[in-house]
Specification:
This protein is mainly alpha-helical. The protein has two domains: 77 residues, Helicase, Ruva Protein, domain 3 (Orthogonal Bundle), CATH 1.10.8.60; 45 residues, Arc Repressor Mutant, subunit A (Orthogonal Bundle). It is 54% helix and 3% strand.
Protein backbone atom coordinates (compact mmCIF):
# COMPACT_ATOMS: atom_id res chain seq x y z
CA UNK A 1 0.00 0.00 0.00
CA UNK A 2 1.36 3.36 -1.05
CA UNK A 3 1.52 5.99 1.61
CA UNK A 4 0.53 9.52 0.67
CA UNK A 5 2.53 12.35 2.12
CA UNK A 6 0.50 15.32 3.16
CA UNK A 7 1.73 18.72 2.09
CA UNK A 8 0.87 21.81 4.11
CA UNK A 9 -2.29 23.69 3.18
CA UNK A 10 -1.76 26.16 0.36
CA UNK A 11 -2.30 29.13 2.68
CA UNK A 12 0.64 27.96 4.82
CA UNK A 13 3.15 27.37 2.05
CA UNK A 14 6.17 29.60 1.80
CA UNK A 15 6.98 28.70 -1.80
CA UNK A 16 3.90 30.26 -3.40
CA UNK A 17 5.64 32.11 -6.26
CA UNK A 18 7.71 29.14 -7.49
CA UNK A 19 4.65 26.95 -7.00
CA UNK A 20 2.54 29.17 -9.28
CA UNK A 21 5.31 29.26 -11.89
CA UNK A 22 5.59 25.45 -11.81
CA UNK A 23 1.81 25.04 -12.07
CA UNK A 24 1.63 27.39 -15.04
CA UNK A 25 4.46 25.50 -16.76
CA UNK A 26 2.78 22.15 -16.07
CA UNK A 27 -0.72 23.27 -17.06
CA UNK A 28 0.32 25.19 -20.20
CA UNK A 29 3.57 23.72 -21.55
CA UNK A 30 2.87 25.08 -25.04
CA UNK A 31 2.78 28.72 -24.02
CA UNK A 32 4.63 30.51 -21.27
CA UNK A 33 2.00 32.16 -19.06
CA UNK A 34 2.66 34.35 -16.08
CA UNK A 35 0.76 36.26 -13.44
CA UNK A 36 0.68 40.03 -13.56
CA UNK A 37 3.16 41.36 -10.98
CA UNK A 38 0.47 43.40 -9.17
CA UNK A 39 -1.74 40.29 -8.83
CA UNK A 40 0.81 37.91 -7.37
CA UNK A 41 1.02 39.41 -3.85
CA UNK A 42 -2.78 39.35 -3.54
CA UNK A 43 -2.96 35.69 -4.51
CA UNK A 44 -0.05 34.85 -2.20
CA UNK A 45 -1.75 36.61 0.74
CA UNK A 46 -5.14 34.99 0.07
CA UNK A 47 -6.27 32.53 2.75
CA UNK A 48 -6.89 29.67 0.32
CA UNK A 49 -9.66 27.52 1.78
CA UNK A 50 -8.81 24.71 -0.64
CA UNK A 51 -5.64 23.05 -1.70
CA UNK A 52 -3.35 22.98 -4.70
CA UNK A 53 -6.21 21.80 -6.91
CA UNK A 54 -8.11 25.01 -6.12
CA UNK A 55 -5.15 27.12 -7.22
CA UNK A 56 -4.76 25.04 -10.39
CA UNK A 57 -8.45 25.47 -11.11
CA UNK A 58 -8.19 29.25 -10.68
CA UNK A 59 -5.20 29.35 -13.03
CA UNK A 60 -6.97 27.20 -15.65
CA UNK A 61 -10.09 29.39 -15.48
CA UNK A 62 -8.04 32.59 -15.73
CA UNK A 63 -6.04 31.22 -18.66
CA UNK A 64 -9.27 30.36 -20.47
CA UNK A 65 -10.22 34.04 -20.20
CA UNK A 66 -7.07 35.22 -21.98
CA UNK A 67 -7.29 36.51 -25.51
CA UNK A 68 -5.28 34.51 -28.03
CA UNK A 69 -2.17 36.68 -27.89
CA UNK A 70 -2.17 37.41 -24.16
CA UNK A 71 0.41 35.70 -21.96
CA UNK A 72 -0.21 37.46 -18.65
CA UNK A 73 -3.01 36.63 -16.24
CA UNK A 74 -4.38 39.79 -14.65
CA UNK A 75 -7.31 40.93 -12.52
CA UNK A 76 -9.77 40.81 -15.41
CA UNK A 77 -9.09 37.12 -15.99
CA UNK A 78 -9.92 35.93 -12.47
CA UNK A 79 -13.27 34.35 -11.57
CA UNK A 80 -15.71 36.81 -9.99
CA UNK A 81 -16.02 34.89 -6.72
CA UNK A 82 -12.26 35.05 -6.17
CA UNK A 83 -12.16 38.73 -7.12
CA UNK A 84 -14.76 39.41 -4.45
CA UNK A 85 -12.48 37.74 -1.91
CA UNK A 86 -9.25 39.41 -3.06
CA UNK A 87 -10.57 42.95 -3.35
CA UNK A 88 -12.40 44.11 -0.26
CA UNK A 89 -15.36 46.38 -0.97
CA UNK A 90 -14.44 50.04 -1.05
CA UNK A 91 -15.79 51.96 1.87
CA UNK A 92 -17.34 55.24 0.86
CA UNK A 93 -14.98 58.08 1.62
CA UNK A 94 -15.54 59.53 5.03
CA UNK A 95 -17.11 62.92 4.62
CA UNK A 96 -18.04 65.58 7.04
CA UNK A 97 -21.85 65.82 7.09
CA UNK A 98 -21.81 69.48 8.04
CA UNK A 99 -19.68 70.36 5.02
CA UNK A 100 -21.95 68.36 2.75
CA UNK A 101 -25.02 70.04 4.19
CA UNK A 102 -23.47 73.49 3.73
CA UNK A 103 -22.51 72.63 0.16
CA UNK A 104 -26.05 71.47 -0.62
CA UNK A 105 -27.50 74.57 0.97
CA UNK A 106 -25.20 76.84 -1.07
CA UNK A 107 -26.21 75.03 -4.24
CA UNK A 108 -29.91 75.30 -3.34
CA UNK A 109 -29.54 79.03 -2.76
CA UNK A 110 -27.79 79.52 -6.10
CA UNK A 111 -30.48 77.52 -7.92
CA UNK A 112 -33.30 79.40 -6.16
CA UNK A 113 -31.68 82.74 -7.05
CA UNK A 114 -31.26 81.67 -10.67
CA UNK A 115 -34.88 80.45 -10.87
CA UNK A 116 -36.15 83.74 -9.40
CA UNK A 117 -33.87 85.85 -11.61
CA UNK A 118 -31.98 87.26 -8.65
CA UNK A 119 -35.04 88.23 -6.61
CA UNK A 120 -33.95 87.49 -3.02
CA UNK A 121 -37.46 87.54 -1.58
CA UNK A 122 -38.75 85.07 -4.19
CA UNK A 123 -35.68 82.82 -3.74
CA UNK A 124 -36.19 82.81 0.04
CA UNK A 125 -39.85 81.85 -0.41
CA UNK A 126 -38.86 79.01 -2.77
CA UNK A 127 -36.50 77.68 -0.11
CA UNK A 128 -38.95 78.17 2.73
CA UNK A 129 -36.65 80.47 4.66
CA UNK A 130 -36.93 84.09 5.71
CA UNK A 131 -35.32 86.89 3.74
CA UNK A 132 -33.08 87.55 6.77
CA UNK A 133 -31.84 83.95 6.71
CA UNK A 134 -31.22 84.29 2.98
CA UNK A 135 -29.16 87.45 3.56
CA UNK A 136 -27.24 85.80 6.40
CA UNK A 137 -26.44 82.71 4.29
CA UNK A 138 -25.33 84.82 1.34
CA UNK A 139 -23.12 86.91 3.61
CA UNK A 140 -21.51 83.78 5.15
CA UNK A 141 -20.76 82.40 1.67
CA UNK A 142 -18.57 85.41 1.04
Amino acid sequence: MRRRTLSPPLRERTDFVPLVEKLLDDLFPEGRLQLAPELLPHLAAYRWPGNLRQLASVLRTAAAMLDGDEREIGWTHLPDDLLDELIPPQAPPASKPRQNLEAHFRQAIQEALADSRGNLSAAARRLGISRQTMYRKLKSQG
